[in-house]
Amino acid sequence: MVTLSTARVLARCNGFTVVADREVVGRVATPVFSGTRLLPDYLLVRLAESIPGTFCAIPTALIGDADAESEIVELEIGVDELRALTEHDV
């Protein structure tokens, strides 16, 4: 469950580095909201190891932590699980 402080960071996390299993997997292109909530529904992430321009929609339920000072979003899933998500790119 994402805390209120993490939700505030995620709402403004454009450009943050995304990490899974302590490995950089990409950068946040933009948080995506479907309504007026503070917490985005998902983060649109430009993947690091893929063809330029490839994005993955990562639901915020898969976010472990987000730190505004270091500008890092940590995923609760590993790299293998992330690769499984990217089979359905946006």
Give an account of the 3D structure:
This protein is an alpha+beta fold. The chain has two helices and six strands. It has a six-stranded mixed sheet with strand order 4-3-2-1-6-5.
How are the elements arranged and paired?
Layout: H1 4-10, E1 17-20, E2 23-32, E3 42-47, E4 55-59, E5 63-67, E6 72-75, H2 79-85
Parallel strand pairs: 1-6
Antiparallel strand pairs: 1-2, 2-3, 3-4, 5-6
Determine the mean pLDDT.
87
What amount of the residues lies in strands? 35-45%
Structural class: alpha+beta
Task: Provide the low-confidence segments as ranges.
Answer: none
Largest sheet: 6 strands, mixed
Q: What's the alpha carbon Rg, rounded to whole Å?
A: 12 Å
The total of beta strands comes to: 6
What is the percent of helical residues?
Answer: 10-25%
Strand order of the largest sheet: 4-3-2-1-6-5
Measured between the Cα atoms of the first and last residue, the distance is: 24 Å
Descriptors for this entry?
90 residues; alpha+beta; 6-stranded mixed β-sheet; single chain; 6 strands
How would you concisely characterize the structure shown here?
The protein has helices spanning 4-10, 79-85; strands at residues 17-20, 23-32, 42-47, 55-59, 63-67, 72-75. With 90 residues, the chain is α+β, with helices and mostly antiparallel strands.
